[in-house]
Specification:
Distance between the termini: 40 Å
Number of helices: 0
Number of strands: 11
Strand content: over 45%
Order of helices and strands: EEEEEEEEEEE
Shape: globular
Structural class: mainly beta
Largest sheet: 7 strands, mixed
Mean pLDDT: 96
Radius of gyration: 13 Å
Low-confidence stretches: none
Length: 128
């Protein structure tokens, strides 16, 4: 069974850091483009970051550029999202997703991203 499992979500104060993990089972994540997406209450899902299968292409949304960093550990079959200088606006459920064809932080239609495999999400709350 092909699965993605996110972990690492937590309550953190503004200015703090968190690292999210996305572990794959049943398939080799190294062969896939992987993205992180998030959805805040009452808002559409938005793209956060994408990493190509080769690692040659990395993209970030403007809202997280310079603060968030995506990277993978092929031995652990896991992709990570390091989040620094967190803001209240970063509060959301964070999802990872994988697709053989690629990844984009820009939705095809609002809130819709053409990724094949999705995890169930992990909650990040930024609050004092």
């Amino acid at each position: 069974q092909l699965q993605l499992l996110e972990s690492g979500g937590d309550l953190v104060q503004p200015g703090g850091s968190l690292e999210l993990s996305c572990a794959a089972s049943g398939f080799t994540l190294q062969n896939y483009a992987v993205g992180w997406f998030r959805q805040a209450p009452g808002k559409e899902r938005e793209g956060v970051s994408c990493l190509s299968s080769t690692g040659a292409s990395i993209r970030y949304s403007n809202s997280v550029k310079g603060r968030f960093f995506i990277f993978r550990d092929n031995v652990k079959n896991t992709v990570y999202l390091r989040m620094n200088t967190l803001k209240a606006d970063d509060t959301a459920v964070y999802y990872c997703a994988a697709d053989l064809a690629g990844c984009t932080v820009v939705p095809s239609t609002p809130g819709r991203f053409a990724m094949t495999y999705w995890g169930n999400g992990t909650l990040v709350t930024v609050s004092s």
